Amino acid sequence: MTRKVHSTVEVRLSEEVADALAEGRAVVALESNVITHGLRYPDNAATAHRVEDAVREGGAVPATVAVDDGVIRVGMTAADIERFASTPGIPKVSARDLPVALARGGMGALTVASSLIAADLAGIAFFASAGIGGVHRGAETSMDISSDLIQFTRSRVAVVCAGAKKILDLGLTMEYLETHSVPVVSYRSADFPAFYCVSSGIPSPCRVDDPTVVARAVENHWALGNHSAFLITTPVDAAEAVDDAEVDRAIEEAMVAARRDGVRGNAITKYLMRAVDAATQGRSSRANMAVLISTARTGGHLAAAHARHLA
Ligand code: PSU
Ligand code: MN
């Protein structure tokens, strides 16, 4: 099924996603940058499938989003996922890169920010990913703030995540979200999580345990006229988490190496993640896979509660 939006941008929904949306069933959008720039092949392909299965277990239809052949694809086949996972050099496409990526044609991997644009255009209310971008450590001199945060102020999508990676400055990330009135609700947990660590050490501004209350709150946010995201956090299972101190040390070392190698801009996230993975002998990658799957399951469960609320 094909839909044209704003006359020049084509948003192509898979039949399953189009049917689910038409019938008011729950759909959860999923990013593709984590496939191409997060994990390595073949772990990335296997994880992308397990993430889709987890959304289904939660009670929703998964919709992985990507740029393919100059159109925004919403909902991908197993063959599409395999192609994205195994093709080297697919560009990372964040919000500002999207117009040129679509004009050029070819493949593009969508970040959280550009995935929210795709979800909003397709009419999908929920998105799940393990770790959002945020304010980087040292942002007071580098000015590096992920456009994920800016997009949260523009897209009407509920974002389910395990907080943000510890490679970021999580305190400043929370301040940014507060300044821009992006609600942050922690589902069945007290702290703002830190991706593959259960807690960032920062208490969440708000804990909610009832999925119906989450669903109502999301709708209230939009009913109040906000054209912005609603953040819901869910932490990694303690058994899958990595040790805080070990990750912190690895990050400090990776940041020194990044400065030495002159890495900055949109390449820094992947560089730091890979360095932390090497320093933890692959433990952070395994935790990364676990947290992607658990977040997707909770995303499916909350999207289903939201669809029931609207029914
Ligand atoms: N979180 C991860 N791994 C990732 C990313 C986030 O655990 O690869 C990606 C997401 O696609 C996110 C992007 O949207 O990094 C943010 O990049 P930047 O900081 O350049 O905006
Ligand atoms: Mn950046």
From TrEMBL:
Its cofactor is Mn(2+). Binds 1 Mn(2+) ion per subunit. The active site is at 31 (proton donor), 165 (nucleophile). The keyword Heme does not apply. Its EC number is 4.2.1.70. It catalyses: D-ribose 5-phosphate + uracil = psi-UMP + H2O. Gene3D superfamilies: Indigoidine synthase domain. GO terms for cellular component: cytoplasm. InterPro entries: Indigdn_synthA-like, PsuG. Mn(2+) binds at residue 144. Substrate binds at residues 92, 112, 146-148. Pfam families: Indigoidine_A. It comes from the Bacteria. GO terms for biological process: nucleobase catabolic process. One of its GO terms (molecular function) is metal ion binding. Keywords: Glycosidase, Hydrolase, Lyase, Manganese, Metal-binding. HAMAP family: PsiMP_glycosidase. Catalyzes the reversible cleavage of pseudouridine 5'-phosphate (PsiMP) to ribose 5-phosphate and uracil. Functions biologically in the cleavage direction, as part of a pseudouridine degradation pathway. Homotrimer. PANTHER family: CARBOHYDRATE KINASE PFKB DOMAIN-CONTAINING PROTEIN, ZGC:136858. Belongs to the pseudouridine-5'-phosphate glycosidase family. This is Pseudouridine-5'-phosphate glycosidase. It comes from Micromonospora wenchangensis. The gene is psuG.
